[in-house]
């Protein structure tokens, strides 16, 4: 019940500089659980923003009254990566040694925000549920840690998909939970849920 809401939320997105992505923003009004109304949209051209600084933007909503006030910072991303299993980022012994040195006890207070990182190898799934009429599924896997989200490619018409991907996340809170969810790609429709597992970082 506010025409001037304050959210004060922060979201991190992994933006790769070789892409020409626009940040799409939608504002919705919710009356109850069933009724929602779009109050306006706006876009931000990420490539036009200066790097390594916080940009304060007041964005008017298209075709609707009102505006959004946002702080957007484009900064080099450390720790997040997606790679194939054959070029695993921690496969190099010298790299492992550098990381061990970086997180040794004598360096533990050098950067309070640099808690560590999590590397996840997503190999395969087995005996998934058939979501299509053909008796098959088009599965892909989504990994979420805090507000970081990465996903595999889709393996079409397969109940035993192999992804063989390596995902690396920076850890921001040691109490976070890694959530791994498998979905069935369904064209233009929302994907179908095939299963999920949650792994607390403290259990690793």
From TrEMBL:
Key word Iron present: no
InterPro entries cross-referenced by the UniProt entry: C2_dom (IPR000008), C2_domain_sf (IPR035892)
An individual GO BP term: regulation of neurotransmitter secretion
A GO-annotated cellular component: synaptic vesicle membrane
Pfam family name, one: C2
Alphabetically ordered keywords of this record: Calcium, Membrane, Metal-binding, Repeat, Transmembrane, Transmembrane helix
Name recorded for this polypeptide: MCTP2 protein
Organism of derivation: Pitta sordida (Hooded pitta)
Lineage: Eukaryota, Metazoa, Chordata, Craniata, Vertebrata
